Model the fold of this input.
Amino acid sequence: MRKFIERALNKLSKLDTEQIHALLFDLATENERLEVVLDSMNDGVLVADTDHKIVLYNKAAERLVPLTAADVYERPLPEAIDDEEIAEFVRETLAQQHSVLDREFTLEENGSARILSCSVFPLVRAGGIQGNILHVEEITEKRGREARLRRAENLASLTTLAAGVAHEIKNPLGSIGIHMQLIQKALDSSGTVDTEKISEFVEIVNEEVERLNRIVVDFLFAVRPMDLSPRDDDLSRVVADVLSFVRYECEQAGVEIKQNLDEELPTLQIDEKYIKQALMNMVKNAISAMPDGGVLTVSTYLRGDEVYLRVADTGVGIEEDVVDKIFEPYFTTKEFGSGIGLTLVYKIVKEHNGEISVLSHPGKGTTFTITFPIPQREQHLISWEAG
Ligand SMILES: Nc1ncnc2c1ncn2[C@@H]1O[C@H](COP(=O)(O)OP(=O)(O)O)[C@@H](O)[C@H]1O
Ligand SMILES: [Mg+2]
Done:
């Protein structure tokens, strides 16, 4: 369109009235089409010029953003917004000449809350900055859906956990019952008390009680809400800390540690204490999967807008038919395993909005891959300087 106008302008002196008429008509039609497109959008768009004065906005902007007047053309962008927090955010972002994406605001109106995601970024044209765009998206529904999903997930995992506990306590309870009967028998018969037998049974009952106790303690540990306090931190540093902590243990077990840590990762919002625990659980599993030694490779790296943490071993691997169960509470293939380690890892990763997956080749080794999202503010759509 622009090329067309340029060409037409160059020839303007040679055009007759009728041709100019047709040209204006085409222009008006094109302009109308753009307006219709803007007004059909669900997202609000407000465009300001280099003096921050509003030059364009759409219907969705009027609907989503509380505005100070019915007509806000020519008003400075922050002053057009009738919400203190959003106005302050826009003012600050414009002053700092920053792009900020997806900042969330909650508006309370007549007892119900609306959540808006707001972004401010420069309007770049022909290599220069010609103003700014405020983009507003309503995410109330999306957030509600996410919260419902999380609740459902929590409930589901609580059900599995409870089923796990019920299953786990059956055996020790049964065993206690049997041995109590045996003790009773040993007391009843013929008046002579077989103290040796009885103390043997009592010993067994004691062990089973101890087992029950462990199950309950593990259960409480698994369901305890995590009081996460995430802070800006460098994942590679946290990982290096854990690895230096387990170095000696690995050496003893004949496990060589290979660490490929990206030193320039973007900052993540993590709780160091929990991340360390998760990694520790995975490293311990890896060590016990390599009874004859092997190689433990721990890597961190950036791909797209996610940070990866990968823990790979050259151990016994996981059989295909159980690989889906390893994150379940109490699932263990070890004689004295708790089956809680990976459940906690899973929970910790989820609490960090991350994902975890596993790939295993029986007899060759296992790789756990965790991804963490980078906080939005670390992602800059268009660098201001680039304009
Ligand atoms: N690196 C690994 N290599 C092979 N198997 C693993 C590995 N990590 C976990 N597993 C399997 O997953 C099960 C559950 O692990 P976990 O929840 O930590 O409980 P536990 O270590 O007490 O058995 C283990 O018993 C084991 O069978
Ligand atoms: Mg374990």
Remarks:
- The domain at 230-387 is CATH 3.30.565.10 (Heat Shock Protein 90).
